[in-house]
Specification:
Number of helices: 15
CATH superfamily of the largest domain: Glycogen Phosphorylase B
Structural class: alpha/beta
Largest sheet: 7 strands, parallel
CATH architecture of the largest domain: 3-Layer(aba) Sandwich
Strand content: 5-15%
Shape: globular
CATH class of the largest domain: Alpha Beta
Radius of gyration: 22 Å
Strand order of the largest sheet: 3-2-1-4-5-6-7
Number of domains: 2
Order of helices and strands: EHEEHEHEHHEHEHEHEHEHEHEHEHHH
């Protein structure tokens, strides 16, 4: 790698930063708040009209530039997307002197055209692919405007894939500059494991019996996350296991997240209400404070995640860091990177409620197995360290920009090194 040694300035552009319950929000806040490096400077443009505080006692992170006027209502309709695209292009042009690389996290609202504009400005564009079935090459090619969209996707100077599955597909599709950098633990309060005392205190506050087996789900209450499968499985199990409880943490209304289907949420509650087990279900709205979120992980015994499509779920990293055994859908190249089947938890085939139920019941009925798998999960979580992520991300940016570093290591917040770093595939 040759070139100058000037500082590389990277601007992250995230449309929904601070407005939705999303893994991207958590990762970006943690990344930008904890980044310490002289060779690469990071900044953020987004739509939030207020500073975002992802943890009590943590400093607010204010956006460098708002791509939507303060107080304005943003629309997801065609006109709203057009306005967003125009504003985005205008910012890229008028603020061209303040960045060298623009990092995108979505392909809609005109973002696919941005690399062409950036190249005219002498800038670089990179994209993070984070959801199989949505922003992977095959999904793009089979979309409504698949052929032109696929061509525009190739205009990005670099692709950052969050899982081996996504990276392999990009490479198989002929993309040259592809880096696989798995997500990092974005809840630093869990870096040293769960807090048993805090967990016990929360269980008492929720009136959960001390000897209960507590299942935990964290994520938006939507079909893609498989919450309907979770509800059906819990309804079966709770009817014959009186000591089984379920905590669901995540947005359930459009007020929390505009992408929520409230009719779907009602159908989920009806399943458990019909089985007479709702008295042992704790519903928690969106949790923005990571200190509070860490307490819910500490209060649980088993993490259940019957998702239908992912990239590399942050919540699996968080659950393993908290020392929880995990029951999750087997999405090869994705969930199996965070969960080792039979060692740190159990993976079951997609849509298989029977297999899901059997796996949860096995863990719920065996305290020793839960402890053994939880310890193994905690050890496996070390591969998702923040320091290692920063090191690989820095190398990715420098390669895209064609620059060389002034120093060899970024200074980061985390301690320890993961046993299996990401890097290029």
């Amino acid at each position: 790698m040759t070139g100058t040694t000037k500082q590389i300035r990277v601007v992250h552009i995230a449309r929904d930063f601070g407005l939705r319950f999303s893994g991207i929000t958590h990762r970006l806040y943690s990344l930008l708040s904890g980044w310490r490096d002289e060779d690469v400077a990071l900044d953020l443009w987004g739509t939030s009209v207020r500073p975002l505080n992802m943890g009590s006692g943590n400093p607010d992170y204010a956006l460098a530039a708002r791509l939507w006027p303060p107080g304005a209502k943003r629309s997801d309709g065609i006109l709203g997307k057009l306005k967003w695209g125009v504003r985005q292009y205008a910012f890229l042009v008028t603020h061209a002197r303040s960045y060298d690389v623009a990092h995108f996290y979505y392909l809609g609202s005109g973002s696919l055209l941005c690399p062409l504009l950036l190249h005219l400005l002498g800038k670089k564009a990179v994209f993070t692919s984070s959801l199989q079935g949505s922003d992977n090459p095959i999904a793009v090619q089979t979309s409504r405007w698949g052929r032109p969209a696929a061509r525009l996707l190739r205009s990005f100077d670099g692709i950052l894939a969050v899982s081996p599955l996504l990276a392999e597909e990009y490479r198989a599709s002929g993309f040259k500059s592809v880096a696989c950098i798995p997500n990092f633990l974005a809840v630093p309060q869990l870096e040293h494991g769960g807090d048993a005392a805090a967990g016990e205190k929360l269980r008492r506050a929720l009136s959960i019996p001390r000897d209960a087996a507590v299942l935990l789900f964290v994520g938006a209450v939507i079909r893609r996350k498989g919450v309907d499968l979770l509800a059906e499985s819990f309804a079966r199990l709770a009817s014959r296991h009186r000591d089984l409880w379920l905590i669901i943490v995540g947005p359930q209304t459009k007020a929390d997240d505009g992408g929520i289907d409230e009719e779907f949420v009602r159908s989920v509650t009806e399943v458990m209400s019909g089985a007479g087990v709702m008295s042992r279900v704790v519903w928690v709205d969106m949790v923005r404070d990571r200190h509070v979120l860490a307490r819910y992980y500490s209060a649980a015994d088993i993490f259940v995640f019957p998702t239908r499509a992912e990239g590399l779920p942050n919540v699996l990293i968080e659950a393993t860091a908290a020392g929880l055994p995990v029951v999750a859908t087997n999405l090869p190249g994705c969930t199996d990177y965070a969960v080792k089947d039979g060692e740190t938890g159990f993976l079951f085939p997609p849509e298989d409620i029977d297999a899901l139920t059997q796996a949860v019941e096995r863990l719920a009925s065996d305290t020793a197995l839960r402890a053994k798998m939880g310890q193994a999960a905690r050890a496996r979580s070390k591969r998702f360290g923040f320091e290692d992520y920063c090191r690989h991300l820095k190398a990715f940016y420098l390669e895209v920009a064609g620059s060389t570093p002034r120093r060899t290591q970024p200074r980061s917040r985390s301690t320890g090194s993961p046993s299996d770093p990401g890097g290029k595939l």
